[in-house]
Amino acid sequence: MAMQAVANNQQIDVSEEENFGPQPVTKLEGNGISATDVKKLTDAGYHTVESVAFAPKKALITIKGISEAKADKIQNEAAKLVPMGFTTATEFHQRRSELIQITTGSKELDKLLQGGIETGSITEIFGEFRTGKTQLCHTLAVTCQLPIDNSGGE
Prior knowledge:
Blueprint: H1 2-18, H2 35-43, H3 49-54, H4 57-61, H5 68-81, H6 89-97, E1 101-102, H7 107-112, E2 117-118, H8 133-143
């Protein structure tokens, strides 16, 4: 019984993973778009559903064999597969306000970075060898475990 529950959880995890990332344009075939139209899209350089969904209709119409009505239908089907939701400025501001700054351990460096390293983003650190890049990363690995009151991440 326990083995079956574990197997069911693994199947759920696999199906959730399949929903993430770019979807191949061939997925449109199951949604009422013919295989020949999908081939035309692929030949024109549209290899993902996302690229079709975000392409302007004018660009799709320029593909030989795709009429304006077909372009509308293709984009409607692509929009059903791709989350194209709108985010208001208020929602975006709310998400930005939840980000915190993690201290680097150096008050002067924190001042330069306007409070420290921001969470929820990618920060690239580069420089010549022996300038402290690795030391900074080790320090951040420790300071991110500090309480938020101490400019940490927990």
